[in-house]
Every structure is written in C-alpha cells, then in structure tokens.
Amino acid sequence: MTIATPDIRFDGRERLIRAVDAAVAHGDEHVVTAALRSVLCEMIRDPHIALPACVHEPISDHYARREIYRSPTHGYSIVAMTWGPGQGTPIHDHCGLWCVEGVWNGELEITQFELLERDHERFRFRAAGGMQAGPGSAGSLIPPHEYHTIGNPSPDRIAVSVHIYQAPMDHCAKFVHDDGEWYLRRDSVLSQDRAA
Question: Is the pLDDT of residue 196 over 90?
C-alpha cells in the first residue's frame, strides 16, 4: 500500500533540507552523490537534527520504509528505514536511480553484487565486496552499479538508515536465488509505511 507523504515535521528538518538541496543543485550525478555523502555524514552527527520518533519503531514482519520528505523543486525523496533485528533485503536494484544511504543508528551489513551475465530469464551475480556500516557512515549507488543487499546483523538491536533517492522509488527489481550464482528477477512494488 502506498501512503501519501504527509508534511512530516522534526527537529532540524529545514537544516537537513537546505543541505540536501545545496548538494543536489550540483547537477552531475557523481558530484551530487559525493556531496550528499558528505552532507549525510554531517547531518547524522548534527545534534540539532532528530528524526521523527516513528522511525525508531520497527515493524515485526518487514523493515519499515517511511518517506519523511519529497522535494517539490528537485524531485528527490528522503526515506528513513527501520531495520528490526535480522531484517534485510534480497539482492535488488534501484531501477536506474542514484541513491545515497547513511546509517543513523545501529549497524548495517551492505553487500555489493556484480552482474556477470544474463540470459533471457536469469541473472548471474557474484558478491563484489561488503562492509559493516555504523552510525555516521554513508555510501552511494550510481547505476549500473546498483545491485546490493542491506541487512541488520544484530540479533537484538534495531538499525535506522536514511536514503536520499534521485526521485521517489516506488518499485524495483528483486532477485530470487535460482541455482548457484543464478537468480530470477521479480518486479516489486515498494510500499511506504506510515510516518507520523
């Protein structure tokens, strides 16, 4: 279910939006994502910014996706994700959108995948590096290097991440394991959880 984005208010909201607007105004996706990585790291450490309380509340059966801002001027979307213990994604893409992701609380495990080949229905991936990311760290994805997984490795703590997408990301391709390094593509609609 897609939920219309309400006008979410939180401490430091305008400071965050001004910083993201300035970074996005650079135009070139490589310059924009580099600037956004720096901005996001700085904003995560800024004691004047406090995300809405709802983003610290996990949902038991899936990681939560809550859009907290959508730019009417630049078109980007800011989504806070809440990862309960052990929650994560399958291999997925970003449907051609660049993205900058930062860890706000907790730790996340991110694994990049390289697309080696594909046939008419299957995709062959190989892990191409991974990292354990803690609070204040940020990374970016620029297509075609967008295939990855994200997961919360903790058995008892939640994690919160903030994702800045080039545009609202309401769908993506998820890849289901078939055999060996081969996966089947499944188109997926991404729902938004209520942010209040």
Answer: no
